[in-house]
Every structure is written in structure tokens, then in C-alpha cells.
């Protein structure tokens, strides 16, 4: 899901977005394609899902700055949840050993 193997042309077909729109979302730091030799962009299936979500929100009138803010908030929440889960696993592991 996270492997960056999809070309921008295929992403355009899958999302209905133009190359220009996709590059704009990259400039706005909403999407992060991998750059190959010669600057060719490669995307993952997760990137495609994110772009579809962005396109839907833009159709609803949501500005890119608000989308970015929402994405940052979600990423912070996901990171905090991961940290909490790891701490719980470590506590359980060391509690068993003592």
C-alpha cells in the first residue's frame, strides 16, 4: 500500500486529477511522491487515496491550508496513539519479566 510504484499518469487516471493539480498538492505539502532518476514522480496506493480525499474536500470548498491543518492534526494523533501502544507493549513486556 505504501510502496511508491505508480506513475503520475496512472494517478491522473485513478483520481481524475490533472498532473498540474497533483503537482500543486505536492507544492502545498499535502502529498509526498518519491523522486526517481530524472525527477520522475512515483506514488503509492495510499497517495492515491489521499489525493482522492483531497479532491473531494476541494469540491466541497475546503481550502488546501485547512486540509493540511487537518492532515497534520491526524498525523499527530496517529503518532501519539502509536507511542501509547508501544509504551503499553513495553510496560507489559517488562512487567511480565519482573
UniProtKB/TrEMBL annotation:
UniProt keywords, alphabetically: DNA-binding, Repressor, Transcription, Transcription regulation
InterPro entries: DNA-bd_dom_put_sf, MerR-type_HTH_dom, MerR_fam
Pfam families: MerR_1
Ranges of residues in domain HTH merR-type: 5-73
Ranges in a coiled coil: none
Descriptive protein name: MerR family transcriptional regulator
Origin species: Heyndrickxia acidicola
Species lineage: Bacteria, Bacillati, Bacillota, Bacilli, Bacillales
